Amino acid sequence: MLYSLLIWARGFWHGLRHRGRVRRAVFTLAIFIPWSALRSLVEVGRALDHVFYPGFRRQPIRRPVYVVGAPRSGTTFLHELLALDEERFTSLRLYETLLPSITLCRLVELAAALDRLVGRPIGRLTSAIEARAFGGWGNIHETAFARHEEPEGTWVLRMFTPAAYLLFPFFDELPEIESLEAVRSERVRRSAVRFYTGTLRRHLYKEARRGRDRTLLVKTVLFPNRIEAVMEAIPDIRFIYLIRDPRKTVASALSMFTAPWKVHSPAMVGATPESARFAQVFIEGYRKYARARASTPADRWLTLDFADMVAAPDRAVRRIYSHLGLDLRDELARQIRDAGVAAREGRNRHHYTLEQFGLTPAAIAAALPEVVAEAIPAQLP
User: Fold this and answer.
1) Domain ranges in the chain?
2) Residues 354 and 361 sit within 8 Å (Cβ to Cβ)
3) Among the listed residues 228, 223, 278, 206, the one whose alpha carbon sits nearest the alpha carbon of residue 68
4) 267 pLDDT more than 60
5) What digits encode the pLDDT tens for the residues 31-90?
6) Whole-number mean pLDDT of the chain?
7) Mean pLDDT, residues 198-202 taken together
8) What's the CA gap between 47 and 44, in Å, rounded?
9) DSSP character for 234?
10) What's the rounded Cα separation, in Å, for the pair 308 and 173?
11) Are 151 and 200 in contact (CB under 8 A)?
């Protein structure tokens, strides 16, 4: 916990050195107080897991399936489609990533059951909190505590995630936020990965105790931050990689990830050096995926084009099942087709341009020519 506290301290210090320091300091403290309380609670809960559920330490993580890609590449949509197969796959929900402890999750589930018996007063309060906390992302990425979600919350508890740049837009001063490889201490890096894999083991163990022996399905878009370390810890990961033209994803990702800046650092929003630097985080993520694919056996990666997946999600899922050696049941195929139709009808119509952030399509294409070529080969001369 000490290292993550140092990240907070450094972020707070750098925030005092920039314009808007008072607003940023108040905002930082308003986030730090619940974060520190949550982190302390999680430490207690994980300690109790060793007392009440010690078997989780022997729980294997067998050949998990990771849906990966740059932010705004359709990973959430594809993950939701695959998660419909509840006989084969299991995924973490947001509350499990924020409370990565079997003991705490069981308490939450017990409280939810009791709450339903008395008319859901806690449920209504939770809905109000969700609307307040996640409402700003409603048109970009729907979020709720009980929804399937990527396990980024586990990394937030350790502050080893690019999501921390939402709070501390000081990229060069806090490089370990962008990449776990930038952490100089090998002990700290290994501890962070153990914390993460411990979360996955706890989820699988909890499911196994309920008689559910399923494959872990994970969706993550900030995976490049720790891709090498996690692949070393879980060497048999299988990847479904969604690729989309970065000239489209970067602008949308910036719109989503810089939204909190409007509250604590409005001068950094838009066509600013900070936005341009954040774009480099996403660009480097594409490069890290390319290096990982090149160094991993081909049968461990399946690359899907975003446009093809959106146009025919049932066909994309059939390709995935064929790649994984699974049979797709007719009933499940029908559910996937229906979900695809519903998603197209309710598709987010909000559009963002690179120019809003002081960038150009030509600059992104020059930075990632191979990615652009792979994402839209029909448009090549």
Assistant:
1) 2-379
2) yes
3) 223
4) yes
5) 999 999 999 999 999 999 999 999 999 999 999 999 999 998 999 999 999 999 999 999
6) 89
7) 97
8) 5
9) S
10) 40
11) yes
Kind and range of the H or E element at 305?
Answer: strand 301-305
pTM of the model: 0.91
d(Cα 225, Cα 223) in Å, to the nearest integer?
5
Task: Compute φ and ψ for 78, nearest 5 degrees.
Answer: -65, -40
Q: What are the pLDDT digits (tens) for 110-138?
A: 988 887 888 887 767 666 765 666 555 45
Can you list the alpha helix ranges (DSSP code H) found in the chain? Answer: 2-16, 21-52, 75-83, 94-98, 102-117, 121-134, 152-156, 175-178, 186-209, 227-233, 246-257, 261-264, 273-294, 306-311, 313-324, 330-345, 361-367, 369-375
* pLDDT score recorded for residue 132: 64
Of 121, 95, 118, 376, give the one whose Cα is nearest residue 249: 376
Take residue 135 and report the two structure tokens written for it.
């409402």
Q: Measure the CA–CA gap between 69 and 79, rounded to whole angstroms.
A: 11
Mean pLDDT of the region 6-30: 91
Query: Ramachandran region of residue 144, left (φ > 0), alpha (ψ -120 to 50) or beta?
Result: beta
Half-sphere exposure of 187 (CA within 13 A, CB side): 3
Average pLDDT over residues 274-293: 95
Whether CATH 2.30.40.10 fits 2-379: no
Q: Look up residue 86 and give its two tokens.
A: 């509840």
Q: For residue 282, which of 191, 200, 357, 379 has the smallest C-alpha distance?
A: 357
Kindly state the tokens that stand for 349.
């119509």
- The reported pLDDT for the residue numbered 346 is 56
Is 177 within 8 Å of 160 (Cβ atoms)? yes
For the stretch 306-351, pLDDT in tens is: 988 988 898 999 999 999 999 998 889 888 888 877 766 555 556 7
C-beta separation of 217 from 90 below 8 A: yes
Q: Find residue 137's DSSP bridge partners.
A: none
Cβ atoms within 10 Å of 325's Cβ, excluding its own: 6
Length reported for the chain: 381
State which amino acid sits at residue 348. N
CA distance 45 to 31: 21
Report residue 210 as tokens: 């309920």
Phi-psi category of residue 2: left, alpha or beta, with phi > 0 → left and psi -120 to 50 → alpha: alpha
